[in-house]
Specification:
This protein has five helices and five strands. The mean pLDDT is about 95. Helix 2 runs parallel beside helix 4. The chain is an alpha+beta fold and about 130 residues long.
Length: about 130
Amino acid sequence: MTTAQMTWGLGRRKSAVARVRLMPGAGGFVVNGRDAKEFFCTVQTQMRLFAALKATGTEGTYDVHCTVDGGGPSGQSDAIVLGIARALKKINPGYDDVLRANGLLTRDSRMKERKKYGRRGARRGFQFSKR
């Protein structure tokens, strides 16, 4: 397979990073060497994966291979969706309007707030004891 037929997209969400590779194919979906339905347990995360492909009407025309690390299932699935959307935009710039209208090209920049000194967490203080 040549690299001209392969398109890459990078997606990030929370602390998850997904490197997505789209190739013309029958619609296979592989995440970290495992089937997507096996990798993601909940139906919600499984359905979310196909959002960009459904919006552009390209379901079953591309094989998706992705490597994802960091974060949890929710962040990882959202990172994959962003990676797929960016790869589809590279393939056909005409998809930009549809993907943007569905909010699939916007990077969700919310991250975990860092812990501060003198506190138990980011904002919560230590428990006060009178005695």
